[in-house]
Amino acid sequence: MFITFEGPEGGGKSTQIKMLSQALEGQYSLTLTREPGGTTTGNKIRQIVLEDVSLDIEPLTEFLLYSASRSQLVREVIRPALQQGDIVLCDRYFDSSLAYQGFGRGLDLRFLQDVTWEATGGLRPHLTFLLDLQPEIGLERAAARGQFDRLEQADLQFHERVREGFLNLATAEPERFYVLDATRTPEELHAEILHVVQSTLVFRP
C-alpha cells in the first residue's frame, strides 16, 4: 500500500508520518521516504532545488528537477518496496508538483501531468492525506523551525495559490484524498489517520 502525505508548509506531515510509522511498526513491514530525496541522487537534487537558496531556478527547471528526483525514488525505493509487500509512507509526491509548480508557479497542468506519468511510470498513491491549513499559520510554524527553504521563502500569494491547488486536487479525487484540518493537535490528527489507515488495510485485498 502506497500512502502519501501532502499539504502546505507547516502542516505537520513529517510528524504524522513518524507517529503513524510508530503505531504500525511490528505489525507491518514499512518503508518511509520523502520528496525530493530518498535516494543518493535525489538527496543531491534536494540540495539544489530546496536548500541552496542562492540559486536562481526557473519554474520549469524546478519542476524537472523534482521530477528527476521522483523518477529515481520510484525506481529505486517505492516500487521495490511495494513489490515486496511493504506499506510505503512518503512525505510528498507528485501532488506537490501539481500544487507548487502548477497552481503556484503557473506551469501548465496537463504538461506537468504528462511528465509526471513518464517519471513515475504511472504509479499513483492508494491513499493521500492532505494536511490543510491557512498559509499564514503554516509559514509561522515553518519560521519557528529556523531558516526558510526556497519554497518557504515565496510570498504569501504564492502559498495561497498552492493551498487552493491542493484543495482542488483533493476535490477532483475524493476516493484517494483524505483532507484533515492541520490546526488540530498532532494527537487528534494521528488518531484519525491511524483509523483511516487501519480501516483501509482491513478492506484492501
TrEMBL record:
Q: What class of enzyme is it?
A: transferase
User: What InterPro entries does the record point to?
Assistant: P-loop_NTPase, Thymidylate_kin-like_dom, Thymidylate_kin_CS, Thymidylate_kinase
Recorded hits in Gene3D superfamilies, A to Z, give: P-loop containing nucleotide triphosphate hydrolases
Keywords associated with the record: ATP-binding, Kinase, Nucleotide biosynthesis, Nucleotide-binding, Transferase
Q: Which reaction does it catalyse?
A: dTMP + ATP = dTDP + ADP
Record-level Gene Ontology MF annotations: kinase activity
The Thymidylate kinase-like domain is annotated at 5-193
Entries under Pfam families matching the protein: Thymidylate_kin
Instruction: Give the residues the record marks as binding ATP.
Output: G7, P8, E9, G10, G11, G12, K13, S14
Give EC number(s), comma-separated.
Answer: 2.7.4.9
| Family according to the record | Belongs to the thymidylate kinase family.
Q: Which HAMAP family does the entry mention?
A: Thymidylate_kinase
Functional note = Phosphorylation of dTMP to form dTDP in both de novo and salvage pathways of dTTP synthesis.
Q: Could you tell me what this protein is called?
A: Thymidylate kinase
Native source organism of the sequence = Deinococcus roseus
Q: Which gene encodes it?
A: tmk
